[in-house]
Amino acid sequence: LGGGGSSGGSGGGSVAASCSSVFSRSVVSSGSDRPNATAVSVFKVGNDAGVSNGGTPTTVSLNKDTWMVDLWTYHWNNGRGQPAGKTAMIAADGTVYGPWQTELVNGVYWVAKPQTWLKAGSYTVCDSDPSTWAQNSGTSGQGMAWATRIESVGA
User: Fold this and answer.
1) pLDDT band at 35 (very low <50, low <70, confident <90, very high)
2) Of residues 66 and 134, which shows the higher confidence score?
3) Mean of the pLDDT values across residues 26-51?
4) What is d(CA 17, CA 14) in angstroms, rounded to the nearest whole number?
5) What's the chain's average pLDDT?
6) Nearest in space to 73 (alpha carbons), one of 62, 60, 91, 92
7) Which of 9, 68, 88, 119 would give a disulfide with 22, using CB separation of 3.0 to 4.6 Å?
C-alpha cells in the first residue's frame, strides 16, 4: 500500500490533534529498497487483559533504522469490531509516515502494509478511529498496536 514520509510539523498542538489531521494527507513514497533481511517484532503495546474502547495515540521508540513491514491496531469494540480505517506514524521531528489504508483481519484487527524505512527514534502511532481503538490500564490508555520490521542481515 505504499509507505511514505511527508513533511508535517506538530505546530505545538496536542498529539491527538496532530493525529486527526494526518488522515486528510496523501501518501508519499519513501522508497522501496528492501534489505536482505529477517522479519522481527519491532514493538508491541498490548496485553491479553480485557479492553475498552477509546485508545489514545501510542508512543513507541525504534532503536535502529527499520524497514516497517506491517502495522497492526486492535478494534475489539465490544465484540463488534470496526471496518478497516487508516493508520499513520508521526516521528518526533514532525515527519508524517502514511496514512496507510488498513485491511480488516479476523473482524477486529486492522493491518497496514507500509513497506517503508523509518529512522531510529520516537514515533506516535495514529489511528483514524480512536473511539473503537482497544486500550486498557495495562497500556495506560494508549491504543493497542504492534508492528513487524525487516532487520538487515549482515549490516
Assistant:
1) low
2) 134
3) 73
4) 5
5) 83
6) 60
7) 88
Per-residue pLDDT tens for 136-146? 999 999 999 99
Distance of CA 43 to the CA centre of its chain: 10
Peptide bond just before 99 cis, omega within 30 deg: yes
Distance between CA atoms of residues 105 and 25, nearest Å: 24
Report how far residue 39's alpha carbon sits from residue 95's, in angstroms, rounded to the nearest whole number: 25
Top pLDDT among 55 and 30 is at: 55
Rounded Cα distance between 41 and 28, Å, is: 25
> How many C-beta neighbours within 10 Å does residue 106 have?
7
Give the whole-angstrom CA distance, residue 140 versus residue 75.
16
Query: Which residues, including other chains, have CB under 8 Å from residue 12's CB and lie 6 or more apart?
Result: none
Cβ-based neighbour number of residue 114 at 10 Å:
25
User: What is the C-alpha separation between 96 and 90, in angstroms, rounded?
Assistant: 5
Distances (CA, A) of 134 to 44, 52, 98, 124: 13, 6, 21, 16
What residues does 60 pair with on adjacent strands?
123
Cell of 78: 465490544
Instruction: Enter the C-alpha cell of residue 66.
Output: 527499520
